[in-house]
Amino acid sequence: MKQNNGLQLLRFIAAGLVLLVHLPTYAVFPFFAGEQRLFSGAIGVDVFFCISGLVMYLSVGRKTGPAFALQFAIRRLFRVVPLYFLLTVLLYVVLSVRAGNFSDLSACLGKSLAFAYCGTGNGYGDPIIPMGWSLNYEMFFYACLLLGLLTLKENVLRHVALLLVAIAVFGWLTNDHFYYVNSIVIEFVFGILLGMYGEQIRRRIPKPAAILLVGLVALLFFGAMVGIDGPESDAAAVSRMTIHFGAAGAWPRWIVWGLPSLFLCAAFYWLGERVPARLARLGDFSYSVYLSQVLVMAVYAGAVKFVYKKLNLALEPSIVHTLGIVALTCGAAYALYYLIELPWMNLGKRAGTKAVEKAGLAPSRSS
């Protein structure tokens, strides 16, 4: 699949939004961070889900059969797992050392590494890396797609989309009470639909109207970001599925954050090659930015508090801490991409090809 520069840039923007919403209270950023923040960057997760659905449609296309399914499974595992496992274990060690107790998080460590529900009898619990909850759904989406590749001879993405719609509707009607049966999975379907019909829609939009639509999409997206994904609730298997808009009430996440994310994804998808390649390169580091930020913040917090204590200074909120965290996260992401992500991605490509050859599987006719 040829890389789409617009989607690559949007990946980085989405990771940046998630980074801003997780900044600690002593790191402030106008409108996006601090106790009085106006916008929530948590919507970046919904953008990722829409992009994922679209990219899977573009990369899978009409391919099917056991040969492609095996390659798909191996490449996805090599793409997602190594960095997530490494950072999960590192964060587990950091948090346990800081707490002086390795046993409290040990049960959640195993569940985190298995992409499984990390809840307890007290209700929902995030994985060791909090954003890992979204990876659980990403892997669930891949599992559904893998099942389709193994069992269907054609129209795999259409059938997977129908399955996810059924799951999402049931999840919505049952207040998302069951973990993987959750309304948010319909956001993958949004991306699939964009892949199916995006180009047809784009060709029918006149250029003057396109400029107006881009402006409306931006307004809609920023309007959606005013919502807050909380408060936490044990009523659902995963919290954050209801977005609160103050006097405007509470709305399902897949509607008020999913649809604006779809429209934004469409805009960047259609931009495509109009986005400079150098700018699009930022998207290469989005996964590392997304996963490493909490570990960076934990290490930064320990270092800053140690230094301030030694100097007998009070830790006051400052944008300097924001710049420090953002710079360190970007630096860590750059290193992790070249040291971990890229080597494992290349290894996954080779391993997938060798596995198919060793199994004696022939590519399907629709590949």
The figure for the number of domains is: 1
Termini Cα gap = 13 Å
Instruction: Determine the mean pLDDT.
Output: 91
Q: Given the helix and strand composition, which structural class is it?
A: mainly alpha
Q: How would you characterize the largest beta sheet?
A: 2 strands, antiparallel
Oligomer: single chain
What is the percentage of strand-forming residues?
A: under 5%
Gyration radius, rounded: 21 Å
Summed up:
This protein has helices at 5-21, 44-60, 66-99, 106-113, 132-151, 156-173, 186-203, 207-225, 253-256, 258-271, 277-280, 286-310, 319-359; strands spanning 242-244, 250-252. The protein is mostly helical and 367 residues long. A hairpin with a 5-residue loop joins strand 1 (242-244) and strand 2 (250-252).
Walk me through what this model shows.
By secondary structure, the chain is mainly α. The protein has one domain (5-359). It contains 13 helices and 2 strands. It has helices spanning 5-21, 44-60, 66-99, 106-113, 132-151, 156-173, 186-203, 207-225, 253-256, 258-271, 277-280, 286-310, 319-359, and strands spanning 242-244, 250-252. The protein has a two-stranded antiparallel sheet. Helix 1 packs antiparallel against helix 2, helix 3 runs antiparallel to helix 13 (319-359) and helix 12 runs antiparallel to helix 13. The longest helix is centred in the last third of the chain and has 41 residues, at 319-359. The model has no long low-confidence stretch (mean pLDDT 91).
